[in-house]
Design goal:
The structure is a homodimer.
Chain A lengths: L5 H16 L4 H12 L4 E2 H8 L3 H14 L2 E5 L6 E5 L3 H30 L7 H27 L4 H16 L1
Chain A binds a DNA duplex through α4.
Chain lengths: 174, 174
DNA sequence: CGTTTCTTTCAGTACAAACTGAATATACAG
DNA sequence: CTGTATATTCAGTTTGTACTGAAAGAAACG
C-alpha cells in the first residue's frame, strides 16, 4: 500500500466524505478506508504518509477506530512498531458501529424522553399535548431499540430471510 | 409556545445535540423539535425569539426542513406571515429523512463502488485484493438498498410483525 | 403604485472541531 | 542504565460550518 491506485484513492476520498456527513471525522474514516483496502497491516507512519496527515492525527484517529473495535494493532516480526489492520467482515463492522452509536445516541435519547414524561407537571401550560408528543416519539425509539435487539440476536443470513418474508407480506397486503 | 417549559427546553436542546452527531445542523434540529412540540403552527419570528437565533437563520433552516418534507408552511386567517408546522407522525418523519439520506448518501456510495469495480485495471498492483474488498462492500450496500426498498413498501404495522417473526426465527435457530 | 410587512440572500464574523508539531511519555535494545 | 525508536498528549493554529445583520426582494395592503 505504498502508492495508491486511482480506484483506491477514490474509495478513500469518498469514504472520508461520507464519514463527515454521518458525524464521523474525515481522517478517521479515511484511515479506516485505507486499512480496509490494505492486504497487510500498516504502521502509523505509513498511514500518515499515504494520507498526508500528521503522525499525531493518525494516532488519535486509530485510537477511535480501536474503541469501536473495527481496527486493531498487530505485531510484525522484526518490527517494533505497531501495525494496524481493519476488520474485513463488512456486516460485522457496521453491526459494531451501529451497536455503539445506539448506545451513545439512541439510548440517551430514550432516557431523556422517559425522564421528560416523568417530569411533566400536569399543571404546566400545554402539558397534555407535550405528553402526547413525547409519548409518540418515545414509542418510536422503543421500537427502534426492539428492532436493534432482534437484529443483534438473529443468526447470520436471517436478515435476508426476513427480507424475503417482507416481500411476501407486501404481496398479500396488496 | 410563547415560553418554554423545562421539559420542552430539555427536548429541544437534546434534539439539537443529536442532530449535530448525525450531520444535521443544530438549529435545524432545534427548530424541528420546537415545531414538533408545538400544538399550533409558528411564525418564523416567534421561532427566532424562542430559540434566540437570528431571523435569517430560521429562514434558512426552515427551508431545509421543508425540502425534507417534514415541515410545511400554513396560513392563518388574519395574519400575513407564514406559519410553520411539523409533521406529527414520527414513523413517517423518519421514513422521509431516511429515504432522502439514502438517496443522497447511500446511492452515490453504491455508484462509486460499482464504478470502482468497473474501472479496476487487473494489471495494477493488488487489483485482486482491491476487487475483493470493493465487492464485499458493494454487496453490503446492495443489501441495505434491498432492505430499504422492502421497508418502504411494507404496509403500516408490518415492521412490528416482522419483529415478532424475527423472535420466532431466533428461538428456532438457537 | 407607493407603502408596509414579511422573507430571502449574502458578505462578513464567530465558533467549534480538526489538525499540526513540539514536547512528553513509553518501550525496547544494547 | 543509556540511548534510540515509537507512541501519545497538548497548546496553539487552521479550517470549515454555522450564524448574524444589513440589504435586497416579494408579497400583500390601501
Amino acid at each position: 500500500m505504498a502508492e495508491l491506485t486511482g480506484v483506491q484513492k477514490q474509495y478513500i476520498l469518498h469514504w472520508g466524505e461520507m464519514g463527515t456527513r454521518w458525524g464521523i471525522n474525515r481522517t478517521v474514516a479515511q484511515i479506516h478506508a485505507l486499512l480496509y483496502l490494505s492486504p497487510r497491516a500498516l504502521p502509523a507512519e505509513e498511514i500518515a504518509e499515504t494520507l498526508s496527515v500528521a503522525r499525531s492525527n493518525v494516532s488519535t484517529s486509530i485510537r477511535e477506530l480501536e474503541t469501536w473495535g473495527i481496527v486493531r494493532a498487530v505485531h510484525v516480526l522484526g518490527d517494533r512498531r505497531e501495525h494496524y489492520e481493519s476488520m474485513k467482515d463488512v456486516w460485522e463492522m457496521f453491526r459494531l458501529v451501529i451497536e455503539q452509536r445506539k448506545r451513545r445516541e439512541i439510548d440517551p435519547t430514550r432516557e431523556m424522553l422517559r425522564r421528560g414524561l416523568a417530569d411533566l407537571d400536569p399543571k404546566e401550560l400545554g402539558a397534555d399535548y407535550t405528553r402526547e408528543r413525547l409519548a409518540a416519539m418515545a414509542g418510536f425509539f422503543e421500537a427502534v431499540t426492539e428492532l436493534h435487539d432482534q437484529m443483534k440476536r438473529l443468526p447470520t443470513g436471517t436478515v435476508r430471510k426476513l427480507l424475503r418474508m417482507g416481500t411476501k407480506m407486501r404481496r398479500k397486503a396488496g
